[in-house]
Fold these 4 entries.
Entry 1:
Amino acid sequence: MPRYIYGESVAAFAESRAIPWRALLDGPLDMLRTWVKRRREREELLRYMTIDHRAASDLGISRESARDWAERPFWRG
């Protein structure tokens, strides 16, 4: 026997109140993962640049532009 509250089925009421927690957290978590990945890549570039003075030319960029790119804040793409 179905239950009703104010003329609506309890099952329908419960389904409409469900909060998609996973959907709410996916966006910020993806952004955080992207920031962490950028930070790691930039640290790796700086390490590579310190190992060999010709590293920037191997990458096809100037040393100054590589240093500027590596030192940018992680939230800037």
Entry 2:
Amino acid sequence: MKCLSRLLSIFLCFILVFGITGCGSEDLPMQYGSITTNENYIIDSTSEQTQMTLFASDYCATIDDVTNSSTVDYSGLYAAGIYDLNDKEVLYSYQANEHINPASLTKIMTALVVFDNCNLDDIVTIGDVTITEDGVQLFNLQTGDQISVRNLLYITMVYSGNDAALALAQHVAGTEEAFVQMMNDKAYSLGATNTNFTNPHGLSDENHYTSAYDLYLIFRAAVQYDEFIQLINTASYTVNYTHADGEEASRTITSTNKYLTQDYSCPNQISIIGGKTGSTMAAGKCIILYATDSLNNPYICIVMGASDEETLYQTMTQLCEDSIH
């Protein structure tokens, strides 16, 4: 028994000394210091291990303003940004991480959640989509009307109909509140951490906010859907639906994007594929665009908080021409 105890003690001592000193140890230099390796713990510097894919390496990113290359007067804006999708480069950035009211640019997230969760050919029976705020854009959907998800999306994105956005929310999630939770969950999954939505349409609420950079992230996700690009590229569309009494109805709507309707000329050598506008007293005049240069390279362009429509389009045109080459 004494012999067995002595052997066990010797073995434990050996393990202790081995653990402290290692065996065949070697200092391996690293970018931020060094790490000691031994026979039992080895870092093999093979070609497969020399690079690590960084989180969000596929995104444009900057924490600073990038305005030096532009002559745009940004003093009256809330935020702005130009993002090169191919080179993952921020070409212009002004207050891109500040909390701002997104107005109807909110509807981009509404559409994205719908695309993620819904068949566009589904028929929706309209419930209570009453919005009593004065001066808001409404299609005037009535309780009992029947209309496809696709047509509701056109009303939401082309005409910016707030009642259509609310109808989509109710159809997808059952209640507006449940849909808003889906919107915020989606924003979080995209890394849009400066965002909090309280409704699906963008009418003003002090707790409803995002940032220009978060809008870039959300819009970038949405344009992965071909149907979304088709929506934002539409200058006019005829909506077909059925009233509660069974009477067929149709109505042609026109885009709020004045580049598409040719009320304003596109920036020189830049094609406007489409986009979304927004406007409230709190948000000012806003627009986000999906654009391409003469070589068909894609960009996302954002201007938030212009004082009026003419300033909005003039600023966006100048910003695109200064930044995209």
Entry 3:
Amino acid sequence: MTAISWTDETWNPVRGCSQVSPGCANCYAKHQAARIVRMAKGKPSKYDGLVRMTARGEAAWTGRVDLDPKTLAAPLSWRLPRRIFVNSMSDLFHESLTNEQIAAVFGVMAACPQHTFQILTKRARMREWFAWVDPVGRALLERTPIPLRPRAVIENAALATMTGVDGIPKRRDHAWPLSNVHLGLSVEDQDAADKRIPDLLATPAAVHFLSCEPLLGEIDLRHVQHNREFELDALTGDHGVFRPLAGRGPRVDWVIAGCESGPGARPCDVAWLRSLRDQCASAGVPFFLKQARGPSRENSPGPDGVVRPSVNHGLQSTSKPGGVIELPYLDGAQHAAFPVVGPAE
């Protein structure tokens, strides 16, 4: 289980990461990895060589990233359906991983149709990987063909992980893109939204979602401007004025938002949260407010409109250090909606 309110379980088949944007500055994962190394007290740990301490005594990723074979097969033995956050401590589309290693992770997900896998990335490589796994896109990228067709790569990767595991589900999701895999993007401000969202929506997925956490600035998802070439309403799929395209394209199906927490947390204006809430409401897109800073007195409204709900009213909120509230009320209401998907989930 996990304390992350929008998922049921975390699964980390990949270890290690590296910083790519301002949103990474206070990454909880590098601090957690450093803590695991310290707790090992000189004995081997899974994050040895992947995290280091700087001269200022701060945790930092070394940039090395590994596939963890011991963890890779874990979901195959989880019988009850659950939402699974993939790589809460890393990024599945990190540039240090090979295409085949990423395919192995997708193979496990294909072998577990009872689960919903939630992938979050900051990297445009996700679009490149999906193009690679598609025969036409792979040729366009001038990648060296591998002997097996893409679906076979995925299936064989799954079979390889199943060796020696008892009671493995034999069913597989043969649809592509996998109907039980939700592809998400971390965006912290408008600049990140403009740069990354077009790549997300150009990547095939059963569900596209955004994690606007830590939210470091206002984001207008109705006017995403990519390379000054076109404007996109990410919540409807409409293309706009710079280079009009025929019809609507894929849209964002779910938005998660929240402030930064922990040491050195940067401010998050409640107006930014309200804006995302209202944009989603207008477009009929589910909105999940994960966390926000609230008033100092319990059950009393603050000037920012975020309050801690009373016991047994709505979903249970929890207090975190720094005045952060998990699952807060915003202007008198909680927002914990999930995307609605078909029975294939």
Entry 4:
Amino acid sequence: MLLTINNTHRPIVITQNGEAKGVFIDTESYQKMNDAIGIIKIVSQAENDIKNKGINSNCKVFKNVEAKIRAKKNN
């Protein structure tokens, strides 16, 4: 059974009394799914920031970074 999962990357649904109770997937597919979920979370957070005006222009970001670098050099 595991050899089939690794070769085909197709999930195996485990049922009990005809009702789906669990799913086996290979580790590569699991990692890809987790990576995709992470990207979706980042995009969702970015969309919320844009909607709530929680964004800064590139110029403002670079000025803040340069100011922090200068402050570190002066310490």
